[in-house]
Amino acid sequence: MDTLSSTLCSSDHCSFPRIPKTPPTTKPPPPQLNFKSKPNLPLPATITHTSNALLSASAKSRPLDQTLSLLRLLPSRDTLTWNTALSACLRHRRPIAALRFFQQMLLQPSEPDELTLRSVLDASLATGDLRLLLQLHAHIAKKRIESAVANTRLMGAYWKLGLIDFAREVFDGYPQRESVAYTVMSNGYMKAGRYEDALLLFVEMLERDGADVDGYSFTCALRASAGIWCLLVGRQIHAQLVKVSNGGDVFVGTALVDMYVKCGERGFPEKAFADILEPNVVSWNALMTGGELESGDALALFSRMRDLGVRPDRVTFACLLRACKSDVGIGLVQQMHGLVAKSGEVEIDVYIGGALFKMYIDQGCVCEARRVFHEMGDKDTLAYNLAIEGCLHNGYGSEVPPNNYTFASVLRSCEAEEGKQIHAQIVKSGAKVESDLYISNGLLDMYAKCGYIEAAEILFNRMSNRDLPLWNAMITSLARHGYAEAAINMFHELLSCDKMAPNHITFMGLLSACNHRGLVDDGYRYFGLIEKPTIDHYACLIDLVGRTGRLKEARDLLERMPFEPNELIWSSLLSASSIHGDVEMAEYSGEHLLELNPKDSGTYVTLSNVYAAAQKWDEVKRIRKLMKDHSVRKVPGCSWLMVNGNTHLFSVTNGI
Questions:
Q1: pLDDT at position 525, please?
Q2: How far apart are alpha carbons 653 and 656 in whole angstroms?
Q3: Which among 55, 396, 447, 625 counts the fewest CB atoms within 10 Å?
């Protein structure tokens, strides 16, 4: 976006990846103007008001491209018009389009307001382009814009990019610092772990205007004291807090409790907690996180909390279970397990499930421990290690044999050789593979992912009871490995089953099969059977149509679908354009891709290859220069090879 750079701060450096050429059906980009180029007097306000109403309605209900087309047709535009366009671009994740409209706005009589600057700063942050953010900073300084909203937003943008010194520069440039400026700066220091700086800022705030120190400022200061485990500073902040009488606030009070708990000051957390007028679940959790809390104290706090009607959450149960020792008794462990299950809102994850598992194991209740293990959601390596270590440490290695759920879980992460060994172990255990859906789904998925399609088909044909996930796994696997006709035949076999109807996953596998064989007409026909197509279905169909060379049809599908195109869809269109050498369509899709993700190296490489095939060497140089200017690096291709259980990585940089 060269013109934006020059308009803001008279720079000749390019700030955005811009594809200058557009498809024939779109209008050419606006001419490059300067600040002195102003149009004639605006039209009457009634016309502008009506135009804004139309644009606002379009932005809420229509695709972004239609809204932007309407904007270009409006006879008159004011600040509200531009703000509506900027907000629409950001809502549809098109930050570069928003910045281009801001560029056009600067050439009009309309002056940017606080909403404009906020939108533009958000757009520049979304692009991740530091140079553009610096240019906007220079523009705000040059125009002497003293908007608190703009400066606060600019500080927040610098913080998100990790530019602490730049954020401090904006803060120091405030003519009259408001509490919100201190809040943003303090929050940034806290997130960066610079607790000492946050405390110094709090002291500065007290010295400049102590009357404006709000509860959030005290909360940040107390959290900073806890972060450096400095009890002395925490007590001084507490004393200052008593002077301004903010102790009853739930957020300040909770931070005070947390500070005393982390600094190891006994007795004071309870006193600070008692001063909170209406403690919430976070307040109770802060009180229960004390490392010195005994089982009885933790249970007493939990009982008081429930009596007062405060509903425990995941952190509450984790703190309670951590505080309870192995001597609490099996009855109490079962009660806590029942409370977790009864709450209905707390998932038995690795932390809560792991604590319950250990408590059951310590009590010698192997069966209950195994049940807890299978109740855990999304078990990872930590969960399995915890289960194995707990069983072996307590001498229960042989008493906890794997069951069907265990086999199914392990099969999801197996290679072919490991999967075969587990399959043999399943047969040895006497499990009925043909009738157990958990094991059969796991085995079929493992064999199919590893490329053993014949083994997956044999297993599928032996199944006496097939559910829809099993059908979907088989259809998707056949399509993934290029067996399109077999996948289509299996789909028709599914349709003939009673009480069995395909879902969105089934149709994704079917469309993928058509895509592998280039069956466009079949793809259209099956797409028409979907009651409510998702954006993934459209992406698959557009990819199918585009790869067969029917690029105009693919673009028509893209523009007619009721969804805003995502990166996958634009990438499919760009790939199809590259395959068939359509330069204009490649530029069209590439421009939209770079708006969504300016750092994607694949888009630059594909565009460069398209230009090279068309012998447009100047464009090739321009694309490569854009990559260099925006620090975009091509990710080298790599492959993995497993030999004797060891995984080896090979990349294009390895020598032969």
A1: 92
A2: 10
A3: 625
